[in-house]
Backbone:
């Protein structure tokens, strides 16, 4: 009742005199020995550092050999395991609308350059004449149409014309004369002569500009030619205005 050990129970129940089973297990777990414990339950002098080292080693051994259930295993810090390298493709952003327009313009400019290169080369000249028109040609000129340029009194007026042509390559030069057919030449017959100021022949196409010195007018004769015949249309201008138009035809004399 006074808290002291009864006689006869000294060696069995007194934890200070004799260690019980629980006390033995605790000492064994902590790495202590019976010799390091005094009669009063305290560590003997000289055993403090040794017992602390034993206790630390026992704690480390328990942690490494008996991990807590459910906890992940501890890894060594000397050689940490690296995660496997995984490669992922870079994320490519969609091109902007401005970039697409720039690309389309560059492609179009390149195509235009290629087309321009394909056209590079000597410009084709006029076709070589297929006939030689040098000689004297005799024919007619007729005023038409009626009611627009000409009055009814001179509609279908016809004049006799003579062309004396000289051909050099594709160029034509020569003289022109007009005679009475069923009507006088213009200006009461004064416009009866002229000269070819410019003329050319390409293939079977003929162009001539005939100057009339009497009234400083000019007539454009255009037509198709063969070795023996030629025909087409003509227009005459005076003072910047149209004064006569019609059709013409001629045949080779020699």
Residues:
């Amino acid at each position: 009742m006074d808290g002291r050990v009864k006689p006869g129970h000294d060696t069995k129940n007194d934890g200070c005199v004799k260690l019980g089973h629980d006390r033995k297990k605790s000492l064994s777990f902590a790495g202590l020995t019976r010799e390091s414990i005094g009669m009063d339950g305290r560590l003997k002098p000289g055993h403090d550092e040794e017992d602390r080292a034993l206790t630390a080693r026992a704690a480390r051994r328990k942690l490494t050999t008996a991990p807590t259930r459910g906890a992940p295993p501890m890894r060594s810090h000397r050689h940490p395991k690296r995660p496997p390298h995984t490669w992922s493709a870079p994320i490519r952003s969609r091109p902007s609308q401005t970039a697409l327009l720039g690309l389309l313009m560059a492609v179009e400019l390149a195509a235009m350059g290629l087309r321009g290169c394909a056209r590079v080369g000597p410009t084709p000249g006029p076709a070589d004449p297929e006939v030689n028109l040098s000689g004297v040609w005799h024919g007619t000129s007729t005023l038409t149409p009626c009611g627009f340029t000409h009055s009814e009194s001179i509609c279908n007026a016809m004049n006799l014309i003579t062309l004396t042509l000289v051909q050099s390559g594709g160029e034509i030069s020569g003289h022109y004369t007009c005679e009475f057919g069923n009507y006088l030449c213009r200006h009461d017959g004064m416009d009866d002569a002229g000269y070819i100021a410019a003329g050319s022949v390409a293939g079977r196409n003929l162009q001539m500009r005939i100057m009339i010195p009497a009234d400083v007018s000019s007539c454009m004769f255009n037509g198709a030619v063969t070795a023996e015949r030629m025909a087409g249309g003509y227009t005459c201008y005076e003072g910047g205005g149209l004064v006569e138009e019609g059709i013409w035809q001629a045949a080779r004399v020699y």
